[in-house]
Amino acid sequence: MTRQAFAGATAVSGIGMTEISRRSGVSPLQLALAASRSAIQDAGLANSDIDGVLSYHMADSAPVNTVAEHLGLSPETWTNEIYGGGTQSASILGDAAMLIHSGTATNVLVFRALNGRSGKRMGQAAIRVAGGETQFTIPFGMAGPVNLFAMAAARWMYDTGATEEDLASVVCQSRQLAASNARALFHSPITCDEYRASPFVSTPLRRVDCCQETDAGAALIVSRADIADAVSPNSPRIAAVVRSGGVGSSSMDKAVDLSAIFSRYVAHKLWKLSGLRPADVDVAMLYDAYSPIVLQQLEDFGFCDVGGSGEFVRSGNTLPSGALPVNPHGGLLSEGYIHGLNNVLEAVRQLRGTAPSHQVESPHVALCTGFGGSYGSATILESS
Known about the structure:
Blueprint: E1 10-17, H1 28-42, E2 52-57, H2 64-70, E3 78-83, H3 88-101, E4 107-115, H4 145-160, H5 164-178, H6 192-197, E5 200-202, E6 205-206, E7 215-224, H7 225-231, E8 237-245, H8 263-274, E9 283-285, H9 291-300, H10 309-314, H11 331-334, H12 341-352, E10 365-371, E11 375-382
Parallel strand pairs: 2-3, 2-4, 9-10
Antiparallel strand pairs: 1-7, 4-7, 5-6, 8-11, 10-11
């Protein structure tokens, strides 16, 4: 096993997040600046200490150069915008770590800001027949992500015997955990009957199986390890980052197995590069854009047997007191949706021991994942 060159050389020294809402009343730029300033302050740094800025988006955010300018950063600051959504939420930590390991930067600001509810909404698509390959999919109802991944989930459920009860277990637990999270939009637990009463969006996905569309900004600072130790003790180290995928649920016309999501392809590489095993993970922030992908990740990463993820959740293993706490803040399903970066921030809180609700007892290793169908990413953070 050969660990990545940057493994342990960088740490998340600061985090910041705005209020999560359905209507922010401000621009994505204002959200980005508020979250960024909060993260810089949390890291114990000054704006002038930041020499790298990274962000990912889908034409719905604030330009990195504009954010850098408003923060008063040097024109020599390394900036880069990465196109993409959930796939980037874990791997962008690797981009920051590589910048620092190469000597290009010492403190890198990473942010994601969007008015995902009151502005550009991921869940809405124009009703039209587009050119290129989409002309062969849109006529069959593949008008957006929920339609695509509903079909993938239906196939996965057929192959593994997963049931509606299994999906409900994920959603109900998410709501249960979010009930005590002051940041979360959803504070009311739901019952299985209420789950079944929720309308279908695209079978088998009901409205409550889908993550929220929200307005918010989130940011974090990745620093060289010695700087993080000096300004922000207990900063979690970036131990491993992987980004890869295969032909699957993102391009169903080419898929050997259209139900295969990113974790099928990423898991082996993550364990190989990190030198860890599933049993070493103390808390997992699994990207939960839709409830079935939580179950699929549990199986793909080896936390339970194939076909056993529903019972694994129902048995309490994924509660904060269980064998593998999963999304103790309620995740994207219940806290809110900042394209996965809010899940990474929760991992940092958990490893610091500062989570205001459902703090896991003495966690040392956290897994964070980023989903985009059959392509995605994962990162391991370790307490210092």
